[in-house]
Amino acid sequence: MSKGTGGYVILVRFRARIGQDRQFAKQMLSVVPATRSEPGNRQFEFYVDQDDPLNFMLYEEFVDEAALQTHRERPEMAANLAAIKPMLDGAPEATFWTQSLTNADANGGSRGEVGHVTLVRFRMKPDTVDATLNAIGGDLNDMRGNIRFDLNRSRADPLDCMICARWLTRAIWEAHNVRPEFKEFAARVGPLLDQPMRRMLWKPAAP
Asked: Which residues are within 8 A (CB) of 154 and not within 5 positions of it... i.e. 6 or more apart?
């Protein structure tokens, strides 16, 4: 587990127009390789909602805000935004985060063969921040089948949290959730939160 990594994280939500989802995914995936090769990029992952194929999510991490700005100034990014605009049902929604916990050091930060992604949102109580982060951080060392786990805190309100957890398969994630150790962890963390954990399930988008 690594604490206080400070990565600049952006979560962008998109909704494609009916009939445009495959073309939209193809266009977005076309910019992934070049972005991942940028010196300031740590993660650039594109996912689709498991329950609604028109909902998409882009999970980005840069070393700092300057690296993000360099990314945005690339001519390819302006061209990509122009290309996807007519494919979308509304404007993208972006939120900004600071990475606070990750198990990237344990697996070398591998992007791996992700088959399932769980996005979790919750809010901490002001007086339980350290206890909550310590409890969640302690669970990171016992997550069999997990490829990467990041906990991020909102730049607008650090009590608001977002977890992006990537797994080999959904079945492995489901098996993790029924383990007695995880149930004990959930029972321990629940009272520390101001708002309970809310989950959405994603998977890597395909062209």
From this structure: 95, 96, 97, 160, 161, 162
The structure's pTM equals: 0.92
Determine what percent of the chain is predicted with pLDDT higher than 90.
85
Q: How far apart are CA 170 and CA 174, in angstroms?
A: 6
Q: Which residues of 20-49 are buried (b: 16+ CB within 10 A; e: fewer)?
A: bbebbbebbeebeeebeebebbbbbbbbbb
For residues 204 and 48, give the distance between their C-alpha atoms in angstroms, rounded to a whole number.
6
Of residues 116, 122, 104, the one with CA closest to residue 6: 104
Owning domain of residue 42 = 2-204
What 8-state DSSP symbol labels residue 39? T
What is the overall mean pLDDT for the chain?
A: 92
Question: Which of 168, 175, 179 has its CA nearest to residue 203?
Answer: 168
Number of separate domains in the chain: 1
Q: Which of 41, 45, 23 is nearest to 32 (CA)?
A: 45
- String of DSSP letters for 127-171: T-HHHHHHHHHHHGGG-TTEEEEEEEEESS-TTEEEEEEEES-HH
pLDDT confidence of residue 77: 93
Work out the burial of residue 90: count CB atoms within 10 Å of its CB; fewer than 13 is exposed, 13-18 middle, 19 or more buried.
exposed
